[in-house]
Design brief:
118 residues; mainly alpha; 0% strand
């Protein structure tokens, strides 16, 4: 009987995973609001890091999918390979070019923006 209940529970979790994940996210957000300021800042940094990693993974998949086409459009093999392996991120200028070629907003592409203060 116990094993049967476990199987039913796991099937329920699998079926409602998105809802469950959403509920957990809401609970963590509520919890974060109750934290002290330093702990809240660490939580926010962790969530921003997670979002950045997800964006980077989506970007890698896009590069892999459009690798040959981007080479034809003038991007070097070494550059695309470095982006694909996560060794480098595109510059802001390349992110703008990629967004136009892939029909994406620039905000969906992780990039490095260097600002020089003079």
């Amino acid at each position: 009987m116990f094993e049967h209940n476990i199987v039913l529970f796991l099937q329920l979790v699998k079926k409602n995973f998105k809802k469950l994940f959403s509920i957990i996210s809401i609970a963590l957000t509520i919890y974060a609001k109750k934290l002290d300021k330093p702990e809240r800042m660490l939580y926010i940094i962790a969530m921003e890091r997670k979002a950045h990693l997800e964006k980077t993974e989506r970007f890698k998949l896009l590069i892999e999918e459009h690798f040959d086409g981007l080479q034809e459009k003038g991007f070097k093999y070494q550059t695309l390979y470095a982006w694909l392996k996560g060794r480098r991120l595109p510059s802001f200028d390349n992110a703008v070019k990629l967004s136009a070629l892939l029909n994406l907003p620039v905000s969906d592409i992780p990039y490095v923006r260097v600002e020089i203060n003079r």
